Amino acid sequence: MRVRPARVRRSLALAGTALAAALALAACGGEEKRPVPAGTAAQPPLAPLPKVKPAEVRPLVGRWVGTAEDYFEFKADGTGVWVKDGKTLWKGLAIPEGGDRFRFSWQGGDPKTASYWGVSLTGGGKLVFAGTNQTYTKAKA
Q1: Is the pTM of the predicted complex or chain greater than 0.90?
Q2: Beta-carbon neighbour count of residue 103 at 10 Å?
C-alpha cells in the first residue's frame, strides 16, 4: 500500500466534500418552486387594509424622484406608485406607522409589520426607501 503525502490527502478530502455538497444541492434543486400560501409560517397572513386619513399622509403626498430615474408618487388618500422606466414596480397603499415612517401594502393586504417595503421621511424634503436605502427628493409641484 502506498502512502500519499498529507497535502494530497487534504486535497482529495476537500474534493470529496465539494462533490458531496454539489450532489446534495443538485438533489434539492430540480423541482418547480411554488408560492407559499398566505397564513403559513413562511408568509404570515395579510391583514385588511386600514383606513388612511389624509392628515396622516400629508407629508408624503407628491412625487419623490430618485437618482436611478425612478420615482414614488403618493396621493392624499395614501395610494401610491413606484415607477421606473415607465413601468410600475409597486402600486398600493402607504400605511402610517407613526412618526415619519410608512409601510407599504402588499398584494392587497397589510403585512402589519415594519419591513424593508416602506419609506421614512427625513429632514430637508428627503424620503428613504428601505428596500434599497436609496434617497429620493421631493419634486417641485
Answers
A1: no
A2: 21
pLDDT of residue 87: 97
Beta carbons of 64 and 136 less than 8 angstroms apart = yes
Element (H, E) at 61: none
- 3-class state of residue 15 by DSSP: helix
How far is residue 95 from each of residues 19, 27, 120, 124, measured CA to CA in Å? 49, 42, 11, 22
Burial pattern 24-61, b for ≥16 Cβ within 10 A else e, equals eeeeeeeeeeeeeeeeeeeeeebeeeeebeeebbeebb
Write out pLDDT tens, residues 97-107. Answer: 988 999 999 98
- H or E element in which residue 12 lies: helix 6-29
Across residues 45-50, what is the average pLDDT? 87
Can you give the pLDDT at residue 124?
Answer: 83
